[in-house]
Structures are given as C-alpha cells and as structure tokens.
C-alpha cells in the first residue's frame, strides 16, 4: 500500500472511532461486541484490499511470500492484508481453536484408555472377564459387571461433562465477533474466520483474537495498553507500541513481517518489518497476544502473525503438573500386600481342594464336576484358584477410589469456606487447585519461602537515598493534596510539613511549587529538598532524580475524573475487584482544575513495585514522569517539561542484574542511565573510583571480607585529587548501602555517563544489528550492554522499605514449634535477607550462624563446607560437636566460613516477642558475618546444641555447593540447621535446593511464593502454595493451593493439613478393614464346603456391601470428623507431628488392623455357625443373609466407635446407611428370581437371629474398645491429652490417669483464629510441651 493510502487510513480512523457505534458507555464486553458486530461504523473508511495486500508486488519483489535471504525456511513471512499470499508457501493454521479433549467418535475409546491407566481398574477388569467364563463363574454375570461399570460410567460422565463445558466455551470463543479489513472496508467476522495476514481492528475493552503485530493506534505515539491477566495472570497494564514507520503516514510501509516460528515464550518475539530499503526490528513490545484485553486505548490496528493453535496462549495451554500424594503411594504399597494376601488365600483354597479330591471319591461330589465335566485334581484346583479370586476380589477395595475422590472434593470445599483463610481487603479466599494432595498438607517437614511479597508486603516505599556520599534517610510521610496547575497555584503550595522542615535547616529556600505532585503521599526528606535548591549540590541531586524517573519501565496513563471520584474508581481493573491492580494504583499524580472541574490524573502502570517507588520518589521531589513511549520520555522537572529521546534500552535480566537506557537529553547530549544491584554496578564504575587515596579502595563486605573493585574503562585521565574524591564517594556510598541493608531495606545503585558522538554512532550501528538479528538476538543485545555499561559515574544508592506482612513472625514461630524447618530463598543481598530473617523470627538469639558466602571457586566452597562439617558434624555428618569454637576460615578466592556465638546476638526491636535492651540491628548483622564477632574464648563456652545452627549461604556459593561433588556435604550441614537463609539466588537455584531436599531427605516439602521467579520452586516441591500478591499471579497459576497472606499458611497446615491427613489416613485403613473382614468371612466358609468357591451370600449382597451398605458413613466421617478443634491444634502445634511421623497410617497400624480384622471375622463367622448348628439347621441363604447384616452392623459400630466429633450429619448418615442396608435386603428378598427369595421373612421369626444381631457386633469390637480405653487412660497420646484439655475447657472437668498428665484446672483455651497462640509466656509453653509429650508423640 502506498504512503498516501496508509495516511488516509490513519487519518480517517482517528476521525471515525468516536462514533457511537464504536465508543459507548461501558456495557460489558459481550454486549459491546454484539452491538459492534451488527454493522460496522458508517464513518469507517472503505479501503481497497489491493492497496494493503500488494506492497511487495509494488516493489517488484516476485518472491514476497518466501523467506528472505539468510533466514531459515521455517520462519514465516506475513504479507500485511493478504492472507492468500501469506499462506502461499506454507499452510498456516486458522484461528479456530479446540481445547476440548474428545469428539463424538473419540470419546469412548480415549476416555477408556485414560481410565485404564489406573492399574486397579485393569485388575477389576480381569476379575470381571474371569467371572464371565461359565466354568469359573462364582456369582451372577450381571452382578459382576456392576462395580467396574459403575465406576467407569460415573467417571466417564464426569469427564464428558467437563469436556462439554470446554466445547461450549470453544464455540463461544470461535464465534466471537471482530472487524477485519476486506476489499470493501471493515467488515465483521467471527474469530474462527481470521487467517494469518489479515488486518484486524480492535476497540477499547475488546479481547485480542489472535497474536497481532501492532500497526497503529489512536494516539500519535502509537502506544496501546493491554491487560494480560488471561495470559500470565498479571493485573497491571502493559504498554505495547506500534513502530513509527507504520504509525506515521509519511514513512511508508513495505508490507511484510518476517517472524520466528510459533513458540511458547510470551516474553520474547523475534521478527522484523521488511521495508524494502531496510529492516525495522520488532520485539515483544510490538505484539498484542491472543487473550489480552485492550485497555485505555480508543482503537488499535494489527496484522495477524499467529492464529489459532499457533498463538502463544494456545501453545501455553497445558494442564498443571500432576502430583501424587504420599498417602496414595503408601496405599499402593498396602494394595500390593493385600493382593499378595488374596493370592495366598486363593492358593490355600486351591491346595485344599487338591488334597480333598485326592482323599475322596470325586463321583460322589457332583459340584466339583461343574456340570458333569471333571478336569482332574490339578485342573479342578487351578479352576478353584481363579474362582476364589473372583469371589474374594473385594479384598482390594474398588470403592476406595471413588471415596477418595469424593472426600478430597468435600475437604477442598470446606477449606475454601474457612473464613479464617479469607482476606477481606483483597476479597481473596483459599483456592484449592489440586484436589489429589490434600492430605500432604499434614505431612510437611520443610517449608521453602520466598521473601519479597511472601514474607513482606511487596509495597515498596522509597525510604532512603545516598547522593554524592550524603545520606538522606530521614524521610517522613507527607499526605499531599493534588495541586492546581502552576499558573493558579498559591505561593506556598508545598505541604506544611515540608515547609517547616526545610525552614528549620537554614537559609536554603524550598523549590518552587510544581503543577504535579503525588496524590497519595510519599516519603520526603526535607534535607534532600534543601539540597535540590542548593546551587552546589543541586546538580548531583537532579541527575539522581532524572535517573529515578527515566530508567524504568513505568508507563503513565492519563485519567479524567471529578474531585468526588475516588482515585482509581474508574479504572476497569478496579471495577473488576482486582486487589493486585489497587496495589499498583499508587502513586497517582493529579492536576485539578478550578471550581471542581474534572481533574487530569496520572496513574502509573509498572511490572515491578520497586519501580513504582522510584517514580513516586522522583515525583515527590518535583521530577514527575509524564509520558513514556518507545521513542521518548517526558519529565516535568519542577514545572519545566523536558523531553528525552530514547535511543535504546538494555532491559533488566537476572544475569546482568541491571537495566540501562540511552537517551538524548534536551541539551542535545547523549547519556547512558543505569541502575542495578551493587554487586553488578560497582565493578562497572570508572577507573578513578579504584585509584588509591587516603580512604580504602577496597570495599568491606557485610561478612567482613575485603572485595576488590576491578577496574573498568574510563574516558580520560583524572587527577589524584579527583580519584581521592571518587574513592571517598564510593566508600561512603557503600557504607550507606550496608546501613540500609541492615535496616532491612532493598538497595540499588544508580549511575550514568555521557556518551561522545563517535561512541553513539558506533553503538547505534551495533544496537540496530543486534536488535534486528534473527538468530541470537538476546545474546547479542546482552553483549552490547556489557560493552556499553562501563566507565560509569556513581550517582548514589537507594533504600526501599518493604514491610513484613501481618502475622509473619508469629506464623514462623508457630510452624517451628510444630516441627517444620523454614528456609528462606531470596534474591536480595545478604544483609537484607539476614535482617528480614531476624524480623520474622526465623533467626533467633539461640542460633549459631554458619555463613558461607562469596566462594569464588568450587575449591573455596568445598573448603568452607569441609570446615563446617568438621567443626559441627564431627567430620562425618553424624552429629553436632558440642563446645564448638567460633573461628573463621577463608579459602582461596575469598570463600568464607564464620561461626559466632548465637547467645550474644540480640533480638530485633520490631520482632513480635518482647525485647529489652540489647545490641542494635546493625551490630547483629555484623556478628552474623561482619567484621565484628565473638572471640574464640567467648564462643568456646557457647556449646551450641544441634538445633541451634543456622546456615546463611549466597547464590555464588550455592552454584558450587549444588554440584554432585558437594551436594552431600551441603545437605548434611543444612539438615543439621534449624533455619537456612539462601540469598542472591536465581529461580533455578531455588528449585535446585528444593530438589536436593526431596531427593536426599525423602521428606515432604512445601514451597511458597508470589512471583514468576518462584514458579520453578513451587512446581518442584511436593506442595506448591502461591500468594496472590503484587507481582502478578504466575505463582498462583502454577500452585496447588493459593492464599492471600503468608499468615494463613499456619492454619492451612496445622489445622486443615492435620485434619485432612487424619481423616484420609483413617479412611484408607477403614476401607482395608471393612473389605478384609468381609473377605475373611467368605474365606472361613470354604473350610466347610470342601474348599469350593460356593458363597452363602447372594451376588447382589457381594456387590452392594462396599458400594452401598458401608460407603456413606465412610465418606461422611472422612469429610467432617475432627479429632481436636482448630483452636486446640493452633494452641498445641506439636500435634502436627502426627502427620509428619505417619502416626495415623503406617505399616504397623496396617498389620494391627489386619489382626483385629482377623479376630472380628472369626467371631462373625463362628458365632452364627454354632448358634444355628446347636438347634435346627438354617438354610444356606438364611445364614448368609445374617452374615451380611452382621458384618454391616459390625463395621458401622467400629466406625462409630472411632468418630471423634459427632454431628447431625454423622448421625443422619450412619442411621440412613443402616436403613438402606435393611431396605435393600428386603427388596432383594421379595424377588422370586432372587437366590434369597423370602429368606428374611423366615429368619426374622427365629429368636437366635435377633440374639446374634444384638450380641455378635458387640463381641467383635470389645477388644478394640478395651484397648482404646486403656491406652487413653493409662498411656495417653498427645491427641488424648489435647482432647482432654479441650473437653475440660468446655466444662468436662476431669483428668487422665497415667504419666504425669493431670488435666484438672487446665488454663483457659484460646478462641478461634490464627493468632490464638500469641501472648503465651515461655514457662507456660514449656509446661504445655511436657503435658503433650509425657510419653512422646505416638
């Protein structure tokens, strides 16, 4: 398309998009699309398709559809506006998508294939097939089909219903309307009709139908804002930009996009726009991805690059990682044992038949002839073996699988309804995203936690700054009202607090009032305001603030509202109730009109709360970011608008740990603005910072080690005096950084330098080549950034405060009292991590620190680990050596190991426990790795116990420690420590630490985090918990459970985790018990039937016993029973050890249950047998009917005796189950064709029948009852003691006999809530421990 036609299109679009057909009051997305689909706007221009489809032909390129030279043939070429030409060489996928799994033809075979991946289903299918063989049939063929078919049909219906929902969603999405450019102009079409190369028009609040390359937007800057929550979970808006070559009409468009093949990476896009004369690079910032929503943008136009299944959203549309619970793995082990027992029972029957046939005349036993045909002794024994397998098949309970799924579903619903896990400010409840691992919550041994946003609030406040070697850390919060424009502002428009503070400093005058000021308030240091007005210091402060405002990814958006409208009340995300969006709404910058006129207010959108804090701080001091595009940055510098042209951006990444932007300043000079971590920034400073002078030229680190400052390129030779000044500046800045870190602040270093014209020209050529490279683009840009970011001039450093979430110290203390080991894995620097660890009581006075940091090589790390192992683990890892001495050992390259006396470290004043006078936080951090520390003599008397060690290790050392050669030593040291803090770690290192513990310790692990950098750790752990915080929702989307606050983790594990494990563990054992007692009852009968497989029970009773007679009480108890209340579990967190030690369900309990089962089965069989044998004999079916009723009564009584917490639901279900049993047996008794026709009518008239019904179940459970009572009274467990205390608090007033546990006069129990454990005195806590563990946890 020629330039004139494209210019006309843009002009007409800008003039026509305000029509009422396109811009309407918000009616919801569906209503808006439906109204738009009826007819295109009348004002939309009609554009000839040939004008947009033939740019390549106009240029004379006959091979426009093929890949350009030097590009792999797999790369796709998209001709703008011509779908036919785009797909001429390759048939690209259409935009129709299908997320459903099945079709009408594939549903049955595929669903059956998926279901039979369960080995148990194959077992039952084999049993069902064997029973269809006439010679092996034990009971009715129809009845044998019922159990497996019932399970298969129920599961198929569930799967089909779920898939039908997906199919309906697919139909709705594929039929959604949009506008596509056709030869006749803009025409409505369905999403499924779009193809690669089509030009699509979007309006505000419309969902993007395919992956589009952005061509133009309503604004002159070519910026569009998108909400990517549907794709990556993030609620903050992201800016996307159209290239000026397509946005501006005068540039012209060549007409084709060359892009990489489809892939899943939503954060990268490698492509270029072919202009004929040159290439225009395209990146992810130029794309609108399918599923995103266009926000705060009137309209946008894009060309389809990927459609349907090739879009990044569909390529990433995969299910969550499948996890199996530990209980289910143990259950499979016991299932194999039961299968072995079944084989043994059948072998006994087969051998017994063979022996009996050898001793008797087979002609006199017609039932062995199976219809008159005799197969010999071996043949009959083999046939009997298979017949007994069919008869005794329910020893492996098929009903258990159905019950497990139902119970887990009910448990998840109950957890989600817990109001104690509801966070009202965010309207967030607990979300159970994985329903098959609920019980694992009660067996966790290790908790791995992120710090920022997980332990802290991730609401950053600019708290301190170091500029030109001066510390400005005395900021106070000022709630400033929005200002009127500068022309109408009063003389003293500054807030009174600032004015008074500045006036107290001396004659320095405050800066003039500005037209923009943060509406939400900010931390302001009056001395910094005065320094800004000082002619000697103002230049350095101004450069510092410019970097704060410009070197970031924050995008300001303009919103018009009246003074009565609350901030952000009109933003779409807030109207949807998104708490994450509300957290990002600050800071807001306003300019109000006179007389209540609508205000123009800025709202900042950022991907990081750190950057929001930077921009807020700059605005608070008069440097307000007004506009950001791909081409320019506009800053209001104390009332003066300054425009900085963006020449290039080197984006932040975890490897470089810094970000830089090259800008052309208003004065015409080119400057490089850089910010990053101190460890990454200091080596990049100019040579003058490393010159020798009267001050130290080597920086002291937090752990006392001197780190050299490697030289980097400078541009001119400086004098020795300049070098001394620069060195002093660096030393002062580093001292301030250490101070900020000790106070728990997050730190960054800011720097800049001027770029001469010749360097700019060379850099621009390299940047253009790297940005347009089709292969290795990221590596080329990273190499160019490393080459450019050298010889920097230090501006200063920042300290951002990130406060702890409410209840974090109490929750960590609660988890540790419960026996869990809490590890913190963070990317923050060592000082910050240690300070926060003390604040949240992860590190305490009683611990001896082991610090392994800055290991420059694997040998240095090995030396540090070997030193720690020899000092504290006796050289073998077998235990912790008592009387350890504090000593320092350094390896080659700076690897360091420190151990200092933990008892001399004082608590932080802000911790929740009471703290008197003690050392300061900075002294504590120094003693945990600083230059100071305990002397050898002092530490020699410490004698740390094995539970008093705490490990602090950084990412640099961890990369060596996780190697195969050193991981065993690291594991031995870490496992001996009560707390571990890993700092400066990368996301993959977090996952590596979790994998190490899972692999070596064989313990249950839980990882909790809130950001995308925590996803790998969350997926690696046995349980992944996501926090819906300020860093998007990637962690929530990858998690098994999602909570809103870290403090909810205590209740989730100690209450719901304990309940889920206790309930499901008991349910599994109970299902094994009730099926085994039924099978043994049938087994004893073969001793009296010449070892044959004849059964006294009808076929339907055999089937209904597990599925109908006994299933409902099991499900009710496993869903609702409570051994102790939530308040008791929080009051006595040591009860959590029951799940950690597999107390409820283990091998011992399994075999004890089997022994009890054997006793009960013998009583059930022989009591009726001898009762009826003593008098007139009953028929076979009468005895069988009695056995069936007795075993149902016995297992129900057994269950009732084990219920801890009776409710109306328990009563209703138990009595209803017994009623169903009797009614079903009466119905079966009434059918003439039934095997037991009218049997119960005759049996109920016999007194012996009722005597057995009343007495046999009681005799069966009597031993179990006596053992339970005796153990509870004379050998109480922790649960027994806790229940007794709970009942005593409720008014029971009794005591247990045994041990030293007297419960009369117990202290008042706390109320419900996660904070019920707080405020306890240490003496009372020790008393509770003694009371709960008189004989140890069982």
Give an overview of the whole structure.
- With 1338 residues, this protein is α+β, with helices and mostly antiparallel strands.
- Helices cover 42% and strands 16% of the residues.
- A hairpin with a 2-residue loop joins β2 (177-182) and β3 (185-190).
- The longest helix has 38 residues, at 1048-1085.
- The chain is elongated and about 115 Å long.
- The N and C termini lie far apart (81 Å).
Which residues sit in consecutive blocks of at least 5 with pLDDT less than 50?
A: 1-69, 478-515, 517-521, 562-598, 692-718, 876-927, 929-946, 1292-1338
Distance between the amino and carboxyl termini? 81 Å
In round numbers, the mean pLDDT is 74
Helix content: 40-55%
The dominant shape is elongated
C-alpha Rg (nearest Å)? 37 Å
Structural class computed from helices and strand pairing: alpha+beta
Number of strands: 41
Question: What portion of the residues fall into strands of 2 or more residues?
Answer: 15-25%
Physical arrangement of strands within the biggest beta sheet: 14-41-40-39-15-33-38-37-34-36-35
| Total number of helices | 46
Question: Can you summarize the main beta sheet?
Answer: 11 strands, mixed
Task: Outline the secondary-structure elements.
Layout: H1 3-16, H2 29-38, H3 49-53, H4 55-58, E1 76-79, H5 83-86, H6 107-115, H7 119-131, H8 141-174, E2 177-182, E3 185-190, E4 199-203, E5 211-217, E6 223-227, H9 229-232, E7 237-241, H10 244-247, E8 256-259, E9 271-274, E10 279-282, E11 287-288, E12 293-295, E13 299-306, H11 312-315, H12 326-359, H13 376-391, H14 399-416, E14 431-432, E15 444-449, E16 461-467, E17 470-472, E18 476-478, H15 496-503, E19 517-518, E20 522-524, H16 526-533, H17 538-550, E21 555-561, H18 572-575, H19 579-583, E22 588-591, E23 599-605, H20 609-620, E24 623-628, E25 632-637, E26 640-650, E27 658-664, E28 670-676, H21 678-681, E29 699-700, E30 706-707, H22 720-742, E31 746-755, H23 757-771, H24 777-788, E32 793-801, H25 808-817, E33 821-825, H26 830-839, E34 848-853, H27 858-872, E35 888-890, E36 896-899, H28 921-927, H29 936-940, E37 949-954, H30 955-961, H31 967-976, E38 979-983, H32 987-1001, E39 1004-1009, H33 1015-1020, E40 1023-1027, H34 1034-1038, E41 1041-1043, H35 1048-1085, H36 1099-1109, H37 1111-1120, H38 1126-1131, H39 1137-1140, ...
Parallel strand pairs: 15-33, 15-39, 33-38, 34-37, 37-38, 39-40, 40-41
Antiparallel strand pairs: 1-8, 2-3, 2-4, 4-13, 5-11, 5-13, 6-7, 6-12, 8-9, 9-10, 14-41, 16-17, 16-32, 18-20, 19-22, 21-23, 22-23, 24-25, 25-26, 26-27, 27-28, 28-31, 29-30, 31-32, 34-36, 35-36
